[in-house]
Design brief:
Elements lengths: L1 H6 L27 E8 L4 E6 L5 E2 L3 H10 L1 H4 L6 E2 L3 H9 L2 H7 L3 H16 L7 E9 L6 E12 H11 L12 H4 L9 H9 L11 E6 L50 E2 L2 E2 H27 L5 H23 L2 H27 L1 H16 L7 E2 L2 H5 L5 H13 L4 E6 L16 H4 L24 H4 L4 H8 L12 H4 E2 L11 E8 L6 H21 L5 E3 L3 H32 L8 H4 L2 H24 L4 E2 H27 L9 H30 L5 H37 L23 H14 L4 H18 L19 H12 L19 H7 L10 H9 L2 H4 L2
Parallel strand pairs: 6-7, 10-15
Antiparallel strand pairs: 1-2, 3-4, 5-6, 8-9, 11-13, 11-14, 12-13
Helix pairs in contact: 2-4, 6-7, 7-9, 10-28, 12-25, 12-26, 13-23, 13-26, 21-23, 21-24, 23-24, 23-26, 24-25, 24-26, 25-26
GO molecular function: cholesterol binding
Protein name: SSD domain-containing protein
Main location: membrane
């Protein structure tokens, strides 16, 4: 359609007369014409045709004609005196009336546009027209009386130098509508690319471009032809000022007008030693020195420094005695700081001992109070909110990208939802989920209400989604020539958007086809779009299973769906881990000293309640923040149970095993013993849990929403877990200890077994194995240095690997392993030839009526060198740092 419109300004048309040879000798010399004026109008094509005229050029006297000639063809106008041309005023008026489309495409570069006009001005109006043109064939309009002849086919001899200069001045002119080069639209598809000859041939040869009204045989040569001369009009480089223009082309359309691109300092060469990263080599070198020095010391100690060796007596006896004397003197005065820490530890011990006595003496009241608190806080889950939107998860509300996105959404509306598939040849876009929601109800229709077709970015839209056109035997030529360059929705289709993995610019070699369907994302359409997308994904998955084509697909809701699906599958994992941990705690806490006391000394109830307390702490954390309106993420639900379970089980072991190994005085009651135990272990538990809580709350200072919310929930969960353990768990432990001392069975506490023998020792099986075997193996004179060397090796390997760490979140890692999105991400990364759209938004506050503001925002000739489009164009010349 664009080619047709470009051609509409010419004053030729196709006739139905047969081609015939010339019957008389034509003059080909300066001052003679090939045609003059318009003599035949074809109402079917709405085009005027020229009359053959091989006589001297006529003087142009009409003022309007002279004005148009001065504007369009100043080189032919000269000084305006005695102007002779081979075109009439009506031809010039017709030409001017139809120059809108060419000006729209290349008029932003005055030099290019002037050279383009010169090409047609010389052919249409030059007074020396006959020296480089020839009416190769004439037609006859027999409807007139007498019959009128008109030009049917024209020979046009063009100097190759002119054609190359014309092409060079226009080849970089961009088309603001598509963002591509203007010649990509009006040069055709050539295996060797667009050049001067190919461009002029495409514009004039009807055999390769059926939008051309009639054939013009461009003789593109550097030597003479059968005509006396070659047309070689003046041309202007894109960085030169053409007559009648304000200046040369802009940097956007002429690289020669651009300033020197900023010098980007080269990336520093990686620090290498012997061909390897310097840090890695240093770590390896340091580890080797450490192993050598440590091994030397160990061997020397074993050889010369044993206590029964005379060197040990000579070298170390006096030193050891001196250190022992200093230590004795130091114990007498420990300093103010040590006294303060001891005082704090004593006060904390007294506090936890008093707390333990209260809880152990009133177990049921404490348990009831704890259950009440958990239920009260847990009711907050009725108001829970879960965030699955990746934007809300990983981008800070105060980040520059988020602020810009919010500004764009507020002023231009949310960006379109996109439904994308790859490697798919044909899509039936009339698919609907119900009788009430179809794609046509939610899709983008940029030309509505004139054109109500959906925006459908696909190869099939080159054929206007017509099966007949697609199945045509000449589909390749149709795709290049006959098909409309606009899709069915009224807009263009860029090849790099719908074709992937193609060979440079030869799109027919592409191996991947892309279908992209933008969907309106406003507050009214989005809920319906979400429902449509759900059924669309189900449909595509079923379609993929039933066909042999390889299809990678995605919808706007896909990422959220897959994250939610992954969380649902983790429920079983969480429950299974708690069951396993319950079994382990119950087994490890039990003291199985004899078969008669197995069900008395077992800790199944204690283990179950301990794990239940961990779950209660998580419920309290989720509930209290739900009350506060803090949104939780699926990451919290997945990770938090494992984290709090690992931390909480440690405290359970500390309290229970400390009680099991304690030797209580004969007059001390069970409650007093448990209170004393809590006074001994409570301070260390408080410091450990407190430091973990503070660490998590410090993490909440992060601006990343997912990290912030996780840190808040985790810190609160650890804190609640500690509070429940030093209160509710102590009460449960007191009840269990009473049961054990009264020889009642675990779980079935109403059944007593008085025949059970008293335990001979209080060492559990795990404690016994650790003390008798593992500790001896660990403290062996050979094992100790070996363990240090192995641990140091692991640490060195970790340090040496630091340079290989990459910062960032790979989106594939957040998906389940069986997710269809993994294939989609990999296909997009390897095959798609275009990236995400980039928008440059100018905020309000400027007066766009002012000339200086307009010049700062425009990108054509006459605009500022540092205008916004110019700066973007400058940055695009450095593709690697700017990624434009």
């Amino acid at each position: 359609m664009l080619i047709r419109l470009i051609w509409s300004f010419f004053i030729f048309d196709e006739c139905s007369a047969k081609k015939r040879s010339r019957k008389k000798e034509l003059k080909s010399e300066e001052g003679f014409c090939t045609w003059y004026d318009q003599c035949y109008y074809d109402s079917g094509t709405n085009v005027w045709y020229n009359c053959p005229y091989n006589k001297k050029a006529k003087k142009l006297n009409d003022e309007k004609g002279l004005e148009i000639l001065k504007d369009l063809c100043p080189s032919l106008y000269g000084d305006g005196k005695n102007v002779r041309t081979c075109c009439s005023s009506s031809q010039l008026a017709n030409m001017k009336a139809n120059m809108g489309v060419p000006y729209t495409l290349i008029g932003r570069c005055p030099s290019c546009y002037r050279n383009f006009l010169n090409f047609w001005c010389e052919m249409t109006c030059s007074p020396n027209q006959s020296t480089f043109t020839n009416a190769a064939a004439l037609g006859t309009d027999k409807s007139q009386d007498p019959p009128v002849q008109y030009v049917k086919e024209l020979d046009y001899a063009v100097n190759a130098t002119f054609g190359d200069r014309l092409f060079d001045s226009c080849k970089n002119v961009s088309n603001p509508t598509t963002g591509a080069k203007a010649l990509d639209i009006i040069c055709g598809n050539w295996p060797d690319g667009c050049n001067g000859q190919n461009w002029l041939t495409f514009l004039t040869d009807k055999n390769i471009n059926n939008m051309v009204p009639f054939k013009i045989n461009v003789k593109y040569s550097v030597e003479g032809t059968e005509m006396s001369e070659l047309m070689n009009a003046d041309t202007f480089r894109c960085n030169e000022t053409a007559p009648g223009s304000d200046g040369p082309c802009s940097c956007n359309d002429c690289p020669d007008c651009c300033k020197a691109p900023p010098v980007i300092p080269p990336e520093p060469e990686p620090w290498q030693i012997f061909g390897y990263h310097g840090w890695t080599v240093i770590v390896i070198f340091a580890y080797v020195i450490f192993v050598w020095a440590f091994g030397t010391v160990v061997i020397a100690w074993h050889l010369f420094c044993k206590q029964d060796h005379y060197l040990f007596t000579i070298l170390f006896r006096e030193i050891i005695e001196h250190e022992q004397l200093n230590a004795h003197e130091f114990n007498g005065d420990q300093g103010p700081f040590t006294n303060l820490t001891n005082l704090i530890d004593q006060k904390m011990s007294l506090f936890f001992e008093a707390l333990g006595l209260i809880c152990a003496s009133n177990p049921w009241k404490v348990i009831l109070a704890g259950v009440t608190v958990v239920i009260a806080l847990g009711l907050g889950l009725l108001n829970y909110q879960i965030t699955t939107d990746p934007v809300e998860l990983w981008s800070s509300p105060t980040s520059q990208a988020r602020i810009e996105k919010n500004y764009f959404d507020e002023n231009f509306g949310k960006f379109f939802r996109t439904e994308i598939t790859n490697r798919l040849v044909w899509m039936i876009y009339e698919f609907k989920i119900t009788e009430s929601i179809k794609l046509s109800d939610i899709c983008l229709k940029p030309m509505a209400p004139v054109n109500n077709n959906c925006t459908f970015m696909s190869v099939t839209n080159y054929f206007q989604n017509s099966i007949d056109n697609l199945h045509s035997a000449t589909w390749e030529s149709a795709g290049e020539k006959a098909m409309s360059c606009l899709a069915s929705f009224g807009g263009p289709i860029n090849p790099n958007v719908v074709i992937g993995s193609y060979d440079e610019k030869f799109y027919f070699n592409g191996t991947h086809l892309v279908v992209n369907i933008p969907v309106i994302n406003n507050e009214w359409t989005a809920p319906r779009a979400v429902l449509w997308e759900k059924e669309f994904l189900n449909y595509i998955q079923t379609w993929k299973n039933e066909h042999s084509l390889t299809v990678a697909f995605s919808a706007e809701r896909s990422v959220e769906d897959e994250i939610e699906r992954e969380s649902g599958t983790d429920v079983f994992t969480v429950l299974f881990s708690y069951v396993v941990m319950f079994a382990y705690v119950s087994f490890a806490l039990g003291q199985f000293t004899s078969t008669s006391r197995v069900f008395i000394d077992s800790k199944i109830t204690v283990g179950f309640m301990g794990v239940l307390i961990v779950m209660a702490a998580i419920i309290c954390s989720l509930g209290i923040f739900s009350y506060a309106g803090v949104k939780m993420t699926l990451i919290i639900i997945e990770v938090l149970p494992f984290l709090v379970l690992a931390v909480g089980v440690d405290n359970i072991f500390i309290i229970v095993q400390h009680l099991q190994r304690d030797r209580a005085p004969s007059k001390e009651t069970t409650e007093q013993q448990i209170a004393r135990i809590l006074g001994e272990v409570g301070p260390s538990m408080a410091l450990s849990s407190g430091s973990e809580t503070i660490a998590f709350f410090i993490g909440a200072l992060s601006t990343m929403p997912a990290v912030r919310s996780f840190s808040l929930f985790a810190g609160a969960a650890v804190l609640f877990d500690f509070c429940l353990q030093v209160t509710v768990f102590i009460a449960i432990l007191a009840l269990d200890e009473r049961r054990r001392k009264s020889k009642r069975l675990d779980i079935f506490c109403c059944i007593s077994y008085n025949n059970a023998k008293d335990p001979e020792n209080d060492e559990g099986l795990l404690y016994h194995m650790t003390k008798r075997y593992f500790s001896r193996l660990l403290l062996n004179s050979i094992a100790r240095p070996f363990i240090i060397i192995v641990f140091s090796l692991i640490a060195a390997f970790s340090l040496a690997s630091l340079p290989k760490l990459h910062i960032g979140l790979e989106q594939k890692l957040s998906m389940p392993e069986d997710s269809y999105l993994i294939d989609y991400f990999e296909t997009m990364a390897s095959s798609l030839e275009v990236g995400a759209p980039v928008y440059f938004v100018v905020k309000d506050g400027s007066n766009y009526n002012q000339r200086d503001v307009q010049k700062a925002l425009c990108g054509g000739a006459g605009c500022n060198d540092d205008s916004l489009p110019s700066l973007i164009s400058d940055a695009a010349q450095i593709p690697k740092p700017t990624l434009q």
